Amino acid sequence: MSGPAAVLIGPPGAGKTTIAHALAERLGLAVRDTDEDIEASAGKTIADIFVEDGEPHFRELEHTAVSTALQEHEGILALGGGAVLDPRTQEELRRHTVVFLDVRITDAARRVGLNTNRPLLLGNPRAQWTIMMDHRRPIYTEIATHRVPTDGLSPEEVTEAVLKVL
Length: 166
Ligand code: S3P
Known about the structure:
The chain is of the alpha/beta class. The protein is built from eight helices and five strands; from the N terminus they run βαβαααβαβααβα. The protein has helices at 16-27, 34-42, 46-53, 55-72, 87-93, 105-112, 125-143, 155-165; strands at 6-9, 31-33, 76-78, 98-102, 146-149. Bound molecules: shikimate-3-phosphate. Shikimate-3-phosphate binds at residues 12, 16, 35, 46, 80-82, 118-120. The site of shikimate-3-phosphate (S3P) has 10 residues, from loops.
């Protein structure tokens, strides 16, 4: 099948970027991250896009970035946590190998500190993350071809768990 060898989805703090790099190294593949693609083409950070242009505009840029990467990239692809919210993206992902890195609040908070460069988590990051995940978990679960629970695992262990399902 053409397209990425694996697409990683999951909330902020799931470890998508770290695991994407580890998988790419193990498999001798290139890694691509749609958050980075968006920042490169917009010429500014995601936080600035949210503040200056608003979330709907960010989601449009994100849809384009994901669509393009799904067509062009043959290595490991990491998506931003909210990319799966777009119904067009959901439809496109159905043709691919999609791994949901599942995580609970404790581990997510430890991994990224749920810090303030994530615009959707401003204010009360733990509460926002929990509300976000209640809404998104069913979507991540439905879209994914594989779900890998990551709680309590090191990046190496998560990488092994993903390699087993690929
Ligand atoms: C978002 C997650 C972020 C980034 C943006 C929105 C989200 O990516 O795309 O801040 O809606 O969950 P990470 O999942 O890599 O933090």
